[in-house]
Design goal:
- This protein is mainly alpha-helical.
- It has a domain of 98 residues.
Length: 170
């Protein structure tokens, strides 16, 4: 019987398989497309005439991924890295010309595709509803606090009949 420990062992994989694995790790998946479309929409609606900067690109990617996956989580970091890998750099080694936020947003929407733009619009609408609900809850809590404070002041300012300074009859 042949000794199996002396059999040739191949650990190296085919270069094509390595390339396919690398491509699969960095493929533009649907959640990344939706996040990219959400950033593109935000850039189109928020100060679209300002110049786009690399810092803005990094900030939007970080903010969007942390709002979906949680702040500082490993999943948010991985999603942010994948998103930044697919978002074109603003200050490539030599910037050709200044680009506005609206132009960069249009590039992101084009790269994300129409299905992701629709999903991002639904996500933005849900975020808007959530923000309105948070604002309404804060306003309600403030109104309740003001109401309680006003009720306390009103009970302290009631004129008594025995107090001549308050105008009551003695």
């Amino acid at each position: 019987m042949r000794d199996r420990s002396r059999a040739p062992l191949t650990l190296a994989s085919d270069p094509d398989m390595d390339a396919a694995l690398a491509a699969a790790r960095t493929a533009l998946d649907n959640p990344t497309r939706v996040l990219m479309a959400a950033i593109g929409t935000a850039l189109l609606t928020t100060r679209p005439t300002l110049p786009m900067r690399e810092v803005t690109r990094l900030a939007y990617a970080s903010r969007v991924t942390s709002s979906v996956h949680g702040f500082g989580t490993p999943r948010a970091a991985a999603a942010s890295a994948l998103l930044l890998r697919h978002m074109p750099r603003v200050d490539d080694p030599r910037p050709p010309a200044p680009i506005t936020r609206a132009e960069y947003g249009m590039q992101l929407l084009k790269k994300a595709g129409p299905a992701a733009v629709d999903a991002a619009a639904r996500w933005a609408a849900a975020e808007r509803v959530a923000e309105l609900q948070r604002r309404a809850a804060r306003d309600y809590a403030d109104a309740q606090a003001n109401r309680a404070a006003h009720a306390t002041r009103a009970t302290m300012c009631v004129p008594s009949a025995a107090d001549p300074a308050s105008g009551g009859a003695a």
